[in-house]
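Q: Could you fold this chain for me?
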Amino acid sequence: MSTEVRVPTLGESVSEATVATWFKKPGDAVAVDEMLCELETDKVTVEVPSPVAGTLGEIVAQEGDTVGVDALLAMISEPGAAATPSEAAKAPAKAAPEAQDDAGGNVDVMVPALGESVSEATVASWFKKPGDAVEQDEMLCELETDKVSVEVPAPASGVLAEILAEEGSTVAAGGKLAVISGGAVASGASGTAAPAAPSSSSGRDVEDAPSAKKLMAEKGLSPDQVTGTGRDGRIMKEDVQKAAAAPAAQPAAAPAVPTPAAAPRAPVAADDAAREERVKMTRLRQTIARRLKDAQNTAAMLTTYNEADMGGIMDLRKEYKDQFEKKHGVKMGFMSFFVKACCHALNEVPEVNAEIDGTDVIYKNYVHMGVAVGTPNGLVVPVLRDAHQMGFAEIEKRIAEMGKRARDGKLSMAEMQGGSFTISNGGVYGSLMSSPILNPPQSGILGMHKIQERPMVVGGQIVARPMMYLALSYDHRIVDGKGAVTFLVRVKEALEDPRRLLMDL
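A: Sure. Below is the predicted structure, expressed as structure tokens.
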């Protein structure tokens, strides 16, 4: 019996990858979840594990080949084809001896699925220590990815025998975190558990990239000669390439100096340094920083401004807020008016709701509205799917629910993917005016701001009106100035006269 090894999902907007390295060759024995090869995309490196235990047969995609999502990479021949009756008994022991110890009643705690395009996480905190009793579904630890926090429950009741991935270590999806024993007392070995896959040659407790290990062996380099730029000093393939090229330029170079992405920090006086605190950025903050910078580097970003008189909406809320809350069980906020106004404007100016894919423009006949939410760990953008089909009450309920779950770190990956347009409300923090940055691959984002009374001319008289500045940042590669201004004017008109929303004007 043979099993296919195929290209996994590579992430949103990523459709192909290059086969970088094969760690096995035809005829080699492989275990379940053992890494077979490494794929490189224009965004991330993806390791492909073996789906079954067996023998690697034919390799269909060679190193250097370009492959699409779900393309066939190789075939694995499963053992015991000629001895089918004993196949089930042999497979567990051969695939992964540590996966399940039936005799001792041990159960492995594994890293759960982390979501599309997320292949690894950092162990943020353990809620239990070796020797503690645990109940099934009791939370054992919390993992942090570059997008969300994931809590890992106990798969069974028992005693936490050993922790294999300590706090701060990086673990891959499907990796092993700990072992739960069914006995009353934890094994004496539990106190000697070491971080998973330490690097024996360098004494570091960080697992280097497999492609980096292979290249170091080819170049005759040791980990001590390479400066890792990955998380916690993890050595990546690019680091080995730089180290291999360094001797040509600097024959007797001093110990390697890290090459930061930005310019080196200026010297700091000793007394000032003693009063500073250096804290490593969370994965979420690193991702926010990278995506925002990518947006500036990729899109031809431009911002246009307007202002809206919020008096009409404020009068409407004052008149109907009690009835609205009594009927729908949720307060009538401003955000539902903005979501509805943007949906109407996007219908008239569809390029603001579109995205660029290579030399194509993808127009979307739906509105998946991203609503930026500030959390203690950074900005996240949950998505209201098919917002154009929602009423005011449903919008308010969904925003309230997702906002709470975002602040609690309970949002799923699916709830933060696929947005086609974003609204960011800096006004809740007192912002009077700002230029929001695009959320790639989207082509538009609307910035809301503080409502402030300002003198305005109304009917030839100067009166104080509750005004809000509106800012639309857009990708000028796909959205022309006329379209951007038209969009913002339509939003302004809908906000100043909410009746237009009811009449679809």
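A (continued): The longest strand covers residues 461-475.
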